[in-house]
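User: Hi! I'm working on a homework problem where we have to compare a predicted structure to a textbook description. Could you give me the structure for the chain below?
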Amino acid sequence: MFQGPRHDQTFSVIGFHDWKHAMKNGKGLNKHAASKEHLTCEAMWRDKQRRIHTSKEISTLINTDQLQRNRYYLSAIIDVVEFLAVNQLPFRGLQLVCSACTCLENIRTQTEFQAILAHCDSVTKRPSKRKRSQNTAFADYVVEDISTHVDTNEETELRRIFYSCIDSVCGEMKDRFGKNNCQLMEALKALDPVQGTFLDVSKVKPLLDLTKTPALDSEFEVACNFLRAQMEESSPPDGEKWTMKQILKQFHRPLEAMPTVLTAFKHGLTFGASTASCENSFSTLKNVFTEHRQSMLHQRKANLIHLAFEKDLTRKFRDEWKDMVLRRFHTIHRRRLPLY
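Assistant: Happy to help. Predicted structure tokens:
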């Protein structure tokens, strides 16, 4: 609460000790009580207390269950890291998914179900059912048989739900990370220059099969030798590691003589591995296109979304592209304030 460079540090950092003049007018506690810093901090403190009592804190206004979800996500990540450390497994997606699927299949037993059921019974209290009584309308009659709904065994139903949930999750994981998807991931990995399987035609072939492009062994062998020699002799323009984008940009003309390899690189750069990028772009659009910006034109909206989504490019405006942007801004129209 104590913010600002001019606030009195006596009551926030150092501590008050001049008790001889503490209650004098214009000094000590009376002076601090009338100061702007104290009034501001007291108003903020009272506002915080009011929000806590009325359940209108910022976290509550944003989303009531957001804090619980964040804690759940973090605890899940910690559990995964602990599992990998105990079993000495690497941080790799395929091995992690296979290990998680194996763990789920191992708990699909009667013993694990009974343990979970006993734990739930000890923690949660099931609602008691209304006691069934005979209908008073049949008091003057002799009732031989009554057709009623017979309750199924509760444990049997819970066991069915338990097994079906595990089967559904394991089936979804195997479909998403099945043989075909794993082959495509290996193909994308083979297009990475730093990998040992760089331009291995047997690895890249599943990616080319999506567009029915033939994989020529001779072109891949020549391209692999040529690119490895060029990467050893030179370095990327930005001084970082070689990537698919850098190779396609730097050696596009020589790769035109090897169209199959060039097509493989283009497939690798445009291949959508997941829907995360699409969902991220829509989230950015939601943050930019607020109710106060309903009247903006499409071009301006597209430019703002581009700036918000491409954060690595936006950061370059602060240092690397700063002078270029200022010069371009200066040359568009005549400015009252000279920049150059």
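For your comparison, note the following. The first helix runs from residue 10 to 14. The two ends are 43 Å apart (CA to CA). Good luck with the assignment!
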